[in-house]
Amino acid sequence: MLRAQGRAVHQCGSGWVPVFVDQEQSISLMSVGFLLEKPDQAVVWRGPKKNALIKQFVSDVAWGQLDYLVVDTPPGTSDEHMAAMDALRPYSPLGALLVTTPQAVSVGDVRRELTFCRKTGLRVIGLVENMSGFVCPHCTECTNVFSRGGGEELARHAGVPFLGSVPLDPELTRSLEEGRDFIQEFPQSPAFPVLSAIAQKILNETSAQLS
């Protein structure tokens, strides 16, 4: 998505140097993918080794001065999630942003993630429903391919903020796959105002915590 495939990670005096995606070095990345010899190589590690690497990504990377550190995790409540929480706890993480799709299976997974957040003391910033209807690129009519409203209902039931529903948009998918700037190229997309509103809500909420 950020055209960083094939980039290398280097060592410096304070640890690993992350991969920067722009000349201004405003966005930096760290991924196990940067450490593999081949991009299609599988990472077959047991728990202790994976957990140790997660901790290294937090403490042994020369992140420098950051506005935000975003940790993207797969769905679930595994040992890796616990390792991430343990590594981030000394830095007082602002919270978790949970993403679901409307289907009952996905909503059930996120319901367990909400329980995980409560048990670990991690505040939930909000919940987003992704793939919430398909917007036709020709007539802009929205069809609820995967039903609709599961995420909003879960947020209401759990008492956490519901941040918005993001529709399926072919242009958004294409932009992500090609590493293009969706916000700049498709400002008329129906997904644009939703994504902008969600981002603004997150910034408002986290800025209030930092002030």
Can I get a quick summary?
By secondary structure, the protein is of the alpha/beta class.
So what's the oligomer here?
single chain
End-to-end distance: 32 Å
Alpha-carbon Rg, integer: 18 Å
Hey, roughly how much beta strand do the residues contain?
Answer: 5-15%
- What composes the largest sheet? 3 strands, parallel
Cα shape: globular
**What low-confidence regions span 5 or more consecutive residues with pLDDT below 50?**
none
Order of helices and strands, N to C?
EEEEHHEHEEEHEHHH
Secondary structure: number of strands: 9
The tally of helices reads 7
Note down, in words, how this protein is organized.
The chain is of the alpha/beta class and 211 residues long. 39% of the residues lie in helices and 14% in strands. It has a three-stranded parallel β-sheet, with helices on both faces. A two-stranded antiparallel sheet has the order 1-2. Strand 5 (96-100), helix 3 and strand 6 (124-129) form a beta-alpha-beta unit. Helix 1 (47-59) runs parallel beside helix 2 (79-88) and helix 3 (104-120) packs parallel to helix 4 (150-158). The two termini are 32 Å apart. The model has no long low-confidence stretch (mean pLDDT 89).
